[in-house]
Amino acid sequence: SATFQLELAPSLPLHYELGPVLGEGAFSSVYRAKNTKTGQDVAIKIINKLNLSQKQLANISNEIHVMNTLANAGPHPNILRLIEAFDTDLNCFIVLELCDGGEIFNKIIEYTYFSELLSRHVFYQLLDAIRYMHENHIVHRDIKPENLLFKTIPFNVRSEEDAKAALRASDDESKVDEGKFVPGVGGGCIGAIKLADFGLAKQLKYDLLSTKRANNLKTPCGTAGYTAPEVIHCGVDTKKRFKSSTSRSNYYSKAVDIWSLGCFLYTILCGFPPFYDEDHVVLTQKIIKADFVFLEPWWDEVSAEAKDLITRMLIVNPEDRITIEEIYAHPWVAKATAPEAKEY
Ligand code: ADP
Ligand code: MG
């Protein structure tokens, strides 16, 4: 509201002009904004620090630290870019690259479910973001449709030709000048995917400890059933099992993102998540047993390759779960993306 903006004005650098609200998180509001010096449209995440605990404040600095680490490692086209951050006594302002399309979550609701072609277009970009993060020893731990944002393109990704054009456009901002990529067009189709919300992300140095803390932070099943079974278990016995070797514990942490990615792929292909129950206890039981089915008739038309890939991602034991390199080699990914990838 207007009053809220006036209150913030003294602390927000003057060259940013706030626009409408883009989204709300648990402790934050995200606004569209314009840098009046450069004319650049951005998103600003504003976190009011007044009622936050020390732990919550630590999470914010962690989020900024992780995004900085990833930016310094070299920006990746599928990871939301941090532009700058300001900290005042009252608020923290995180200036981010604007994603005019908003959340993939809303696109699933709009389309009901995605075609395999569109699913692959989205999945491949997310896979690239995760590989890049993992190579930089960062685990996201909160991959879900609400935290996947996108930029729009002015045509439908419904045919092979459209998909190829979309891939070219989404990875090449110079296409803006040719009029093929029109930023700021509302209701457009899915172009570049950007992984966002690094509030729960962790660097793997403190692997065992932080994994345990992760559970306290993120109550099991807090987020729509995308939580991996080992995060729910995460008791003494998991800790013992992986204590001996650091590489193993790293592997275990990264596998958490692969599980969520499996839940994500399942969800976009049919429009509902693999694990769901109103009752959290029942939901937890389903997750720890990987108790899911490809429900008829929704899954009848989906390829056997897609189902096989999902089944390999949703394996309870993180040691047996498919790895990111194996996903790239999987027929559903490799066969179809190879020619498109060349066009990048
Ligand atoms: P939280 O950590 O509080 O969940 P998020 O970073 O996930 O906050 O942002 C909350 C919501 O704000 C997102 O789900 C999305 O709808 C919107 N949002 C965040 N960043 C952007 C952005 N760069 N461009 C457009 N919308 C955004
Ligand atoms: Mg979020």
TrEMBL record:
Gene Ontology BP annotations: filamentous growth
ATP-binding as UniProt keyword: yes
The parts of the chain that form a coiled coil are none
What keywords are assigned to this protein? ATP-binding, Nucleotide-binding
- Report residues binding ATP: K45
The organism's superkingdom is given as: Eukaryota
Ranges where the Protein kinase domain occurs: 16-333
Q: Which GO terms describe its molecular function?
A: ATP binding; protein kinase activity
Q: What is the protein's given name? A: Protein kinase domain-containing protein
- The residues of the intact protein that this chain contains are 12 to 355 of 591
